[in-house]
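Let us practice reading a record.
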Amino acid sequence: MKQIETQKKKITDPSVGLAIQLLIKTKLLVPPLRVSFVQRPDLLGKLDKGFHCALTLISAPAGYGKTTLLTEWINTRKKIGASSTLTVCWLSLDSGDNDPIRFLTYLTASLENVNPKLSAEARSLIQSSKSFQPQTPISILINNLQEIPHSIILVLDDYQFISNPAIHDGITFLLEHIPVNVHLFIATRSDPPLPLARLRSHNQLNELRANDLRFSSSEVAIFLNDVFNLSLTPTQITALENRTEGWIAGLQMAAISMQGRLDTTQFIERFSGSHRFIMDYLTEEALNCQSNEIKEFLLYTSILERLSGSLCEFILARESDNEANALPSINDLSFIPGKSQNLLNELERSNLFVIPTDEARIWYRYHHLFADILRTRLKQTSPESIPILHMRASAWFENNGWIEESIEHSLIARDWDNASRLIDLHIYRYLENGQMTTVMKWIEGFPKDIIYRYPKLCVKVAEVYAQAGLIDQIDPLLDRAEEIISVVKDHTGDIEGARTKNLTGKDINMIRAMSAILRGLKSVCAGKPNHALERLHQALIDIPEMESEELAVLFWVEGWAYRSLGNLDRALASLTKGTEFALKTERLFRDIWTDLAIVTRLVGKLPQAIEIFNNSLQIAAERGIQNQGNLSRDESFLSFIYLEQNNLDLAYTHANQAITYTQWWPSHNIIATAYTGLAQILFARNDLDRSVLALQNADQERKNRMMTPYIHSIVDITWARIWLRRGEWNFL
């Protein structure tokens, strides 16, 4: 127990570097409203109906003014004095928010606008490892929100970026239990998989579609003549309205193209065709109307999801500039350094599809549709510049602490050396924060043959696969890593394509050690614990210079092997050694503590096991680990203990929590364990039908997969008990 307290103290020590995900605060701000815009009182009235519904859905393709309309509506409500009786919480979504952990973190952060205490409680529960499940933090939010004495608007903008079923399920749960004073507004390019039909049938859905959002004749006239000062005739306005069908983005591109033109009538006469043709044509016209400097700025910065003056300056820096350093540059630009922020401000004033995302006008983004068009044009005109721009963006984001964006830009640039370096530096922080989804996305960004160039990356990917329940896929990775370092170590030559220049002796020892350890773990999973022990013991002899990190993992796997052999005393000794080495590192190594508790349970020391599990969960909470999937193991084995103590209600709670955690970390071993625990509890409650369903889920996970023998045995034993209870002797 003393070790646990030492670990707990260590993790909560402010001197320990915590892997806390930085929040982009501009995502939580209502976008500023343009000075010149078309007021739309009829649509504002339709949005007002949202005060009587659970959900207001604004669904239309790109370019229909969804965000602008919501911004106008919110500002109008403030002007008429509704701010004292209405709180608005805004969240602008992007592709990164499809990770459930990131989504829930931003959701709770957005609700700080209601009451920081309300949000703090929910966020604490998300990060807590004791009673969290997707419904639980939302339940806390619901309970706290209904205590607020005024109306609350929660806006989720650009919801089309969300495709994760876990997030959709969470929003569905919110809608099913939403308080009467809370109203959800979703803006999206496509309908989300939410219970829209049910909400519609209960008059709880307020809908605005593309047909509602398209500009009317009078709005087209105001937009073209008042906002853009074009002085068009009614006939010309009608022609543009008919050809764009009120599509706001198309009208805006037409207006930009017509500014300063003398041949307006001819332009309108030639302006026809499908939307795709219009986009291509207007892009050409709009860009040709700009100076070379602005055209270059638009094209070369279009690779960015968000823009600031500093970021744009960095990616457009010439080789002669001090900040260029050793990075490649684009040297034939007419762009003058030091003007990026002014250009962004000018582009906004010119209505050139540049949208500020904060009141200070520091961060901007391009309209999604316009960005797509610019990127297509850049690919056609200067494809060789694209990887250079992404490499420079990666460097800027790394320098400013935005590691995810830095890695993403390196992957897009196919800068495999830098992406490999960044992942090697930061992978454990993300894994210990439970962001397996993000890490797997990085790995999938590498072609397999590229991964095989980097021996350290091969080992790290193999370790990720082992944690994700894909241990049967580790051998080719480890074989390749060993092949490369053997050549380096023996000075027998080079392997074509292999990156070995920066490999140190410490790196080589790490690769040798982790390869032996991971192969030992695979042997345990294959039911060959003695073979695993041989590998591990030989590794201790062959690699006496092992670091504490490798030794912690080695003794953890050794503990697994001894447990598989039924030698619980040796298992306890090995796992205790593992915790001792873990305490010497900056990593958390929660799995070692979990397995120490599992073996403590197996020797009959249930109170001590419960204490270790709970301390392990508490350490995770204090470290800020959000919904790490392997917390499921702690919850599963707590449910087993409470089942043994006949505390079925508490056992059931922990079993359901275990299943909830599995969606964040889809390991087949962990999922099978969680469902088996639930099946055993339902069996104890004599709920055989549900017990069978739960066990079938466990069977599905272990089908044709390499798993630890222990999991196979508990699943088989549970099936046997069910068949005996049902009298189905033929299955035995």
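A brief commentary: Residues 217-288 form one domain.
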